[in-house]
Amino acid sequence: MNRRSTLRLGTALLAAALAGPPLVSSALAADMIFSSGALAPVQEAQKMRTVILKDYKGKVTFLPDEPPALLTRLKAEMQGGARVTSLIGGNDGDLAVLAAGGVLAPVDDVAASLASRGFAPDLLAMGKLGTDKQMYIPWMQATYFMVANRKALPYLPAGADINALTFEQLRAWGEAAQKATGKRVVGFPAGPNGLMHRFFQGFLLPSYTGGVVTTFKSAEAEKAWTEFAALWKTVTPNSTSINFMQESLLSEDVWIGFDHVARLLNALEQKPNDFVAFPAPSGPKGRGWMPVVVGLGIMKDAPDAAGAKDLISYLTTDTTQLVTAREVGFFPTVRATLPPDLSPGLKMAVAAIQGTGQAKDSLAAMLPSGLGAKGGEFNKAFLDTFQRIVLRGEPVKDVLARQGETVQRIMTEANAPCWKPDPASTGVCQVK
Amino acid sequence: MRGRALPYLLVAPAVIFLTVLFFVPLVQTIALAFQTSNGTGFGNFVRMADDLNFHDAVVNTFRFVGLAVPLQLAAAMGMAMMLRHLGRGRDMVLWIWTIPLGLSDLAAGLIWLAMLNDRGYLASLLFHLGLVAEPQSWLTYETPIALFVAVVIAEFWRATAIVVVILVAGLQLVPKEYAEAASVFGASPWRIFTRITLPLMKPSIQSALILRTVLAFEAFAVVIAIGGRNFPVLVSEAYNWQNFNQEPAVAAAYAVVVMVLSLVATVVWLRVLRTPEEQRA
User: Fold this and answer.
1) How far is A70 from chain B, CA to nearest CA, in Å?
2) A-chain residues within 8 Å CB-CB of B230?
3) What is the CA radius of gyration of chain A?
4) pLDDT tens-digit map of B26-39
């Protein structure tokens, strides 16, 4: 409490400087304010305002922000007592932070009234964030996959099936392309705003170790990091500046890149004939992949809770969900079949995502959950491991031992149980 | 009575403004930096110092300040002296030199990023001249020296003008008669510069150095635009802890370190470049 009260003025002032909610609130007092960490890139925000929300009858102002800025702003609204936002959109991890900070009101009544929408049960369960109340309504889902320039295809190792690639084959592919062109053409989004940590948590480690937290310093994890460091030799050094892979793919700085669908789609849409999309590679334990859930939550003591509920209802209708998929590449969370007239780029994305989920060796790794405010620190633990092992070449075993302690401390402080693919735990998830 | 209160009334808005928006957050930041989950203490500073980027951030910050500030001072001194010998067009030259002052830090950083990155103007130029076979990456973690040089160049370009302005103002207060008298006695121009001009300019050099050193310790936007995470400095680490790691207390610890460094630098310049009472104009 003490710390919170000290923070109050500072964060409120910071938020005012960053986002200017007081100005917005006075100018648009009549509108329901929808703050979102999802669809924050300008083009997506524009599509949200001009297409997806076009047929909504109520008055709504869509205020997107990069997630860290959004979290700061919403906490400041909460602590400063001046609520502006009614509806909050964000990915599972960000909503977990907000729920832990007491910013979200439960939405069990909304879930009950929208039962006929047919939400995917596991997504709805994730929306409880480990509590017995529904904290958010699943809004959109997505995942990560890889995109390659067709120019890279000739270097694909003999016998490799691009839709069932292994990490070993990806490395061989990168090496062959480098040998032929003299350029390192593989790319990962390891820039400051990139989503590299999700690659480790949802793809690399599950594929090699079958877990994330419990297996953090296992022999399999050592192998994963050692082989990833070898793969990194074929990766462009610009990767530590890449935030959105689509830009690097379009500029041909990268020929073979990994990222979130929303950060690949522009490349596929703009030049569908130049690119192929395919599932991320598999390791000894399967094809690890991370489904992403974006949810809608209602601010505690929201100025317009009724308006927020009404907009949730609108955003989860079949029609709106399909429009959303078509416009921004996030897929329905409700029962809805994608229409056949999708654009070629979106079709490629859908095929890659379905190929991932339906692969024989598919191994879904959930977004970290139950970490509350510790989510950022948890991501940092993985990025630090990457920086030490891959960028600085420190000994793998030592780094994993040291970072393993950090991960354990975070789990203990957050009192978080294991999530899939780690086996369910009684009590705090333990690094073995 | 009213007349006596008037000056205080007139300065009141500025005092209130600075108290509310500067002093209060300052005290809160310091308090926050010493607050840990179990009471008060140095926990946040331990976490800060224990982080793998802390060492790099300290080294980078000091190298950056140590190179950029002397370069800027020397260049600005030269520019101010040259300006003295211009007749017509002097104002135009000064105006052109100070253009970078009108730009935001971030814009300046982005301009240099556009010039220096591997698809930038410089790379394209070298490529078209046939000096390089393919675009080179200079701004990555694999090329730390080039990256450092690029950051210093950008900061040099952006912030030398403010030093020039201060020194030009100081130079105008130095009477020309002293130099003329010295040259009558046969002093060389270099001797005049080192023995007469420089000592007389000490107060303005001091102001310029304090301003530049403090701002260089706080360099952020230019560094982040060009270096990103590849070139951590103290302030960018504070930003990372607040923004990405969502740990305001560790960010506050960084802020306190930067503040202490700035204070120390200020005291050092005040002492080293003190003008004795009897020499003051």
Assistant:
1) 10
2) 240-241
3) 21
4) 999 999 999 987 78
